[in-house]
Amino acid sequence: MRRIYCVGRNYAAHAIEMGHDPDREPPFFFQKNPDNILPAGSDFPYPAASQDVHFEVELVVALAKGGADIPVGSALECVYGYGVGIDMTRRDLQAEAKKLQRPWEIGKAFESSAPCSVIVPASKIGHPDQGEIWLEVNGARRQTGNLNQMIWKVPETISYLSGLFTLAAGDLIYSGTPAGVGAVTQGDIMVAHVDGVGTLEVRVV
After folding, report:
1. How far, in Å, are 73, 83, 121, 157, 166 from residue 56 at the CA level?
2. Which Pfam families does the protein's record reference (predicted)?
3. If 0-12 CB within 10 Å is exposed, 13-18 middle and 19+ buried, where does residue 4 land?
4. Mean per-residue pLDDT for 130-135?
5. N or C: which end of the chain has fewer CB within 10 A?
C-alpha cells in the first residue's frame, strides 16, 4: 500500500446533508495514512479525543498502476480491484477544524480510521458502476445509496486526481459516501456492503 486518497462529498444527497450545494463542482480530496487501514476481521477501537465518531461507507478503488494526467478513457486500466471501506471520522474534531479553516487530518487520519475489506480483482468482478452501497449499525440500515449516484465516476476521479498527484501501484481511493452518516459508540456492530464487491463487518470496541 502506498497512499490513501479520499473523495469528499461525491454523492449529491450526502453533500446536501453536510450543508453543501450538490451541483457538480470540481472534486476535492483529503488523505489518510497507509497505516490507518484496519484490515477485515479487526475491531475498530473508539478513538481518543472525540465524543462524536461517524461512519461513512465507501467503494474502495485499488490501483495496479498509475501515472500523471491519465485520460478518462484509459483510467480503468489502472485499477487492480475494488473493496468495501468505511471512512471513520472524528466529526467533532473535523467540524472544529472546518470552523477554524484548518486542515482535516485531526478528524480523518487517526489510528484505524480506514476499515477495508479484502480487495477483489477487477478481473473477477469487472468495474462496478451501479448497485447498492449501504451500511447497517446493529442491524438497522443507516446508509443506502447506489454507485450510479456518484457525482464523479471512478474513471473521472482517477483522471482528475492524477492531474494533482502522480498515482502509482498500491494507491487506494475511497470514492465517497451516500447520505445517512452518523455516530457509533462502543459495542456497536457496523456492516458495510457494496453490491458485486463484498461485505465488511466491524465491531466498535
Report:
1. 29, 14, 23, 18, 26
2. FAA_hydrolase
3. buried
4. 98
5. C
For residue 138, give Cα distances in angstroms to 25, 77, 202. Answer: 35, 38, 11
C-alpha closest to that of 29 among 92, 103, 79, 80: 103
Please compute, for residue 90, the number of CA atoms within 13 A of its CA located in the half-sphere on the CB side.
22
DSSP character at residue 159? H
Place of cell 486518497: 5
List, in order of start, the domains of the chain with CATH numbers. 4-32+47-130+147-185 (3.90.850.10)
Note the pTM of the prediction, 2 decimals. Answer: 0.94
Residue-level length of the chain? 205
Q: What is the pLDDT of residue 39?
A: 98
Bridge pairing between strands 37-39 and 114-116: parallel
Whole-angstrom distance, CA of residue 123 vs CA of residue 8: 28
> Of the ranges 14-28, 134-148, 175-189, which one carries the lowest mean pLDDT score?
14-28
DSSP letter (8 states) at residue 27: P
- The band of 143, judged by pLDDT with boundaries at 50, 70 and 90, is very high
Measuring CA to CA, how many Å separate 152 from each of 2, 9, 72, 159, 188? Answer: 23, 10, 11, 10, 31
